[in-house]
Amino acid sequence: MVSSAPASVGEDVYFQVPPPLSQAVGYVVVVVIGLVFAIGMIFVTKLLKKTVNEDNTKTEMFITANRSVGTGLTASAVISSWLWSTAILGSSLVGYSYGISGPFWFAAGCSPMIVFFALLGMVCKMRIPEAHTLLEIVRIRYGTVAHIVFMFLCLLNNLFAVANMLLGASAAINALTGIHTIAATFLVPVGVVLYTFVGGIKATFLTDYIHTFAILIIICFFTVKAFTIPEIGSIGGLYDLVVSAALRHPPTGNHGSTYLTMTSKDGLLFGILHLCANFGLVIMDTSFFVKAFAASPKATVPGYVLGGIMYFAIPWCLGTLMSSVALGLENNPAFPTYPRRMTSTEVGNGLVLPYAAMAIAGKGGAAAILLATFMAVTSTLSAQVIAVSSIISFDIYRTYFRPQATDADVIRWSHYGVVFFGVVAAAFSTLLFYVGVNLGWTLYMLGVITCPGIFPTVFTLLWKHQSRAAVIVSPILGMLTGIGVWLGSAYALYGAVTIETTGFALPCVYGTVASAFSPLPYTLIITVFKPQNYDWEDFKKEKLAFAATPSTTNTSSSSSTEVEKLDEPVSQAVMRRWAYIAALFSAATFLGHWVLWPLPMYASKYIFSKSFFTAWVVVAIIWVWGTLLVAGFYPIVDGRQQLGLIWTAVREGKLRKGNSGGKSERGGSETSSTSGEAENGGVKGADI
Predict the structure, then answer these.
(1) CB distance 142 to 530 below 8 Å
(2) Label partner for 637 (CA 20 to 30 A): which of 12, 74, 489, 621?
(3) pTM recorded for the entire structure
(4) Which DSSP category does 453 fall into?
(5) What is the pLDDT of residue 200?
(6) CA dist., res. 282 & res. 602, Å (int)
(7) What was the pLDDT predicted at 188?
(8) Using an 8 Å Cβ cutoff, are 347 and 97 in contact?
(9) What is the DSSP annotation of 110-155?
(10) What are the pLDDT digits (tens) for 492-520?
(11) CATH assignment of 23-47+57-552, among 3.20.20.140, 2.60.40.10, 1.20.1730.10, 4.10.400.10
């Protein structure tokens, strides 16, 4: 049988490890730092409004950042979108469970679909440049019923994604500080709701950048610190410790009963499950579409491709290093659970990483993981909140309650949506916690819920013949099929349907694959009876962007100009070329990260030698340091002209008291595509 957690002590009892940090420290991080970020983002939002006319009281700026975000900030935001607390905690969890293959499959299950989204994002910009959400596209092509079906699928996706994050983060915060898990669950979203409420999507991009930069610094710190303690000493010393760990507790399902091989049956099953689940998470996550719409046309493909490829290093490096540390030092007095192993409850709660950090860096390591976990969950939560907010304001309020809603009306309902989803997500996570669900369970079963809309959504954007009946029926049948296979497999394999049995890997793999792929034959068969022949130009007949008005700032006017430019033949040709490039990189990333690299290693039954393990870890470390450069410094280089403009305005005291028109004395300056587009305000967004 394949379980969702490694073998551990004889009885699955949760032995409480005393928290290394006080509750006061926990509340400072969760509440005070959250509020500091919120206040900081509010200040930055006001500064951008006064210096470069980025006015978040206008819908186009609040939801899409005037479609002007450049390559550097887009790449950083993409990395941040997948830098979940699940990623930093879960990659170490599967490394502890399956050995060296676990973190690799975790990383390989993320990068291909992020890069593939570059294609979807560019197609959206080509065919419906004024869109704010994926659901607007579905409604225009297929009508009200399909719109409601996909709204349900997307909201369910966002809800389970956020619950997955909060469950892992809250458990880690509880273990590190002693704060009650439910208190952490409700307090973590507070700061997020505040700065997202005020700053919208641009605040999300900026906080994504700051949080990602800080998390990568912490990760890079551990890549150095792990080899400075005498118990490890070097990569070779870590290798010896992992070899010894396999002799004490040999992993089941691995060739040679070693952690140091890619030939792990359980690891491969997790790789299949993770790949399918993450395709669902990306494609059905409206936050990815919101960020794609916010990126400038020329930044979408480079930003997503660069972000997807560089992201690969984070779960691979961190998971490999810290799970190896946990396995190697588990019998050392420095390890928090010594002299016992971690229980399956501790592993399922994602405590492999915190315990490993405590083993090599003491309270400092615990504080670093606490900060990284908090920043990871708040950063990704912000994207989820703004995505759901856009659904509530555009797809519910503006569509069904007030079609003639003004800019101010939609902004108000966007604010309502931010607060509403923050409360609902915390409440739903609390419900799951009290029924006995943890990070490990949600990590495994997530794909059953998120995958049914994959093929219908992709065909909505890429295949003009998919019929209305197919897009409505196939995801519903797909979800029912997936849930049926998941629960049926749990019963057939383990004799009961319980929280425990439905969290085992095999039922989750079968259910996720069924949920992901069954809609394909459903939609093809249904479409055969009455195929649609959709004219892509029909997308552009419905105006979605708010028209510029005399009261609208120059930013909004410039945004409208930018949208109009997308219809020019030259721009369309350029975007088609970008779409081909995105398709090429999508195929190359999937083949490289998921097929040509790992599968031959799986088939070869190779057991890592000390020199090969050393090279493996060194490459992972170099890659993650490269990710630090891309996510941390490239946005600064890319946005240097806008930063210079803001600095000049601040230094010369030219901050405008009001924002009526917002004229600037520096008209005509041209900045990079990260800038807000305010032609009269001195910031001209880069064209294609």
Answers:
(1) no
(2) 621
(3) 0.84
(4) T
(5) 57
(6) 27
(7) 85
(8) yes
(9) THHHHHHHHHHHHHHHHH-TT-SSHHHHHHHHH-HHHHHHHHHHHH
(10) 999 999 988 998 989 999 999 999 999 99
(11) 1.20.1730.10
